[in-house]
Amino acid sequence: MAGIEVTALHKRYPDGTVAVDHVDLSIGDGELFVMLGPSGCGKTTTLRAIAGLERQTTGDIHIGETLVNDLPPAERDIAMVFQFYALYPHLKTRDNLAFPLRAEGLPKPEVHERVNEAARLMRLGPLLDRRPRQLSGGEQQRVALARALVRRPRAFLMDEPLTNLDAELRADMRTEIKHLQGELGATMVYVTHDQVEAMSLGHRIAILNKGRVEQIGTPLEVYDRPASLFCAAFIGSPPMNLIEVEVADGKLRSAGGLGLTPPPGLPRDRRLVAGIRPEALEVTAPGAEGSIPARVVSAEWLGDEIIYVVDHDGQRDVRVRMPPTIRFAADAKVGLRHTGGAPAVYDVSTEELVA
Amino acid sequence: MAVSVDEAVSTGPARGHAPPARRFGGRGRSVLEVVLLTVLAVVMLFPVLWMIETSIKENRDVYAIPAEFFGFKVTMDHFKDVFVAPGGGRSALSVSFLNSAVVAGVSTVLATVLGVPAAWAYSRFSVKAKKDQLFFILSTRFMPPVVIVIPIFLMYRQAGLIDSKLGLILIYAAFNVPFTIWMMKGFVDEVPAEYEDAAMLDGYTRLQAFWKFTLPLLVPGIAATAVFALIFSWNEFVFAIFLTSSDDVRTAPPAIAGLIGGTTTDWGLVAAASVVFALPVLVFAYLVRKHLIAGVTLGAVRR
């Protein structure tokens, strides 16, 4: 296993589109590193550049100590799992697994042994003699993972491997991948647009937008203190409420009068926006202490929680996460107050975290 | 299933009592459809039927008035005349059929060998002004051949390609390459690029990946495309008649056309030659009938 260093990566296609503007990544040995972002943010292009399937316009990629810029994919000693599983349709599972080993020219007994080992690890025993067409989506993806495993590569690259599976299977496979990665101590770069996948899998997450890295951090860091307005709006379901605030008399207040704990080091004379997680707000009975008057617009009953959408003076559609036991009818007059610690505060003009 | 909710939930007696007008409309419509299709089929197929009949009639039956549909004496003499010269040996017509086979075959192979990799490249790679390039390639097929036949004739005279099979092969290949690129690009688009990506990670070069994994999956598409190209080259008339003159080089379409004229026309021979000429096309068209429909409804093949 090896770490991966991506330095000042830039990819521009002949037709002029810039897929990756500027990306620096430093991925540790044995780390499960997730690249998260909306479609077109450059995450897949970055991954394909690491794999050698795309040649970057400028920038360097190191895998371990090796500068791999000019190495073809095969010589980079990496394995990749695709969203579309890319199992060879004319080969049985067994031969699909053996294929990369045979391509390497390994002796037969070793190929056999490694295939069996990977099959055992991914529990593919009964599927070994079937062709991809005879496998379900989940089974195909397990074969694809096993196919990556047999190589014993220096790093695994995963390109949205779970996107085509249904929700239940996806959760299972997520657990499986995480378990496998831990057991093998494998370096894994995982691309996804699904924040739940990113949060649950990643040791660290890089959030990409428009070909640039917006933030790199552990799932908790990314969740608690999104580095930019983009990250704030992207992470969390529902995402942060972005509420315009101003500093007055050492207090932080929204235009509608909602009082917030001010974080230290707030800049002066700037237009500011506070990012407040839905769980850091509370819907109360009208007139409760510290609350401001608000109105329930709608409520999403999710079973384990209720998401209230409330309006208050000058601020529309504030989302509040509440336990299912506290119920208000739509259109009810209620109170709204902030219960969490100091919120993340952003400068409106730079869109970056300032405090 | 075209069952509306109302129909599906209606109970016993109400069932099957569709509005009378609609029921009549449905039956009347299908009768009309059958009549129209029959008329169309007769109009389309009668010339073919007549050609086949003429090819097996004796010459006096061919000219008989009123025309004989049934009960004439069947002869295979005309078919013999297609292949055997009056004094024995190969007839000029049989040579022209051979020429057609060579010209159509070689030009199709050439167009496929050039067009398939090009289609793959256009499908897989990011190319500067790809759309414009593809449009330009397609635009070479916009003009009817007769528009450019004089410039081509002059160029060929300079290059010494007049009245040569090579000349015909080249011009047919030039016409078939754009077609091959466009049709094959549709097929390549449907083969996921991930196969090649995976193969490259497994240790193959890009070309090997194309050759070993994508190409086998393209075989049905290549076959269909090649048959279209083959039919085009086989049927082509305009270039063939302008660019060739000697019997050694002439392909079948101008050779058959050459039978008509002079003082008398041996219609039996013309018909028999036409039947022989049409057979390969019919066979190939039958083989690719599925793709033929897709090709006619343009856009069904290409995504």
Please give a structural write-up.
The complex is a heterodimer of chains A (355) and B (303). Chain A has helices at 43-51, 93-104, 108-121, 137-149, 167-184, 195-201, 219-224, 229-234, and strands at 4-12, 18-27, 32-36, 58-63, 66-67, 78-81, 155-159, 188-192, 204-209, 212-217, 241-248, 251-254, 259-260, 272-276, 281-284, 292-301, 306-312, 315-322, 333-338, 344-347. Chain A has 355 residues and is of the alpha+beta class. Chain A has two domains: 4-233, Rossmann fold (3-Layer(aba) Sandwich), CATH 3.40.50.300; 238-347, OB fold (Dihydrolipoamide Acetyltransferase, E2P) (Beta Barrel). In chain A, α5 links the parallel β7 and β8 (188-192). Chain A starts with a strand and ends in an 8-residue tail after the last strand. With 303 residues, chain B is an all-alpha fold. Chain B folds into two domains: 19-83, no CATH class; 92-296, MetI-like fold (Orthogonal Bundle). Chain B has helices at 5-9, 20-55, 59-62, 77-83, 92-124, 130-139, 145-159, 165-190, 194-201, 206-235, 238-243, 252-258, 267-287, 289-296. In chain B, 29% of the residues are buried. Mean pLDDT of chain B is 84; it is low at 1-18 and 298-303. The interface between A and B is medium-sized, with 25 and 19 residues.
Task: Indicate the topology.
The complex is a heterodimer of chains A (355) and B (303).
Chain A: E1 4-12, E2 18-27, E3 32-36, H1 43-51, E4 58-63, E5 66-67, E6 78-81, H2 93-104, H3 108-121, H4 137-149, E7 155-159, H5 167-184, E8 188-192, H6 195-201, E9 204-209, E10 212-217, H7 219-224, H8 229-234, E11 241-248, E12 251-254, E13 259-260, E14 272-276, E15 281-284, E16 292-301, E17 306-312, E18 315-322, E19 333-338, E20 344-347
Parallel strand pairs in A: 3-8, 3-9, 6-7, 7-8
Antiparallel strand pairs in A: 1-2, 1-4, 4-5, 9-10, 11-12, 11-14, 12-13, 14-20, 15-19, 16-17, 16-19, 17-18
Helix pairs in contact in A: 2-3, 2-4, 3-4
Chain B: H1 5-9, H2 20-55, H3 59-62, H4 77-83, H5 92-124, H6 130-139, H7 145-159, H8 165-190, H9 194-201, H10 206-235, H11 238-243, H12 252-258, H13 267-287, H14 289-296
Helix pairs in contact in B: 2-13, 4-13, 5-8, 5-10, 5-12, 8-10, 9-10, 10-13, 12-13
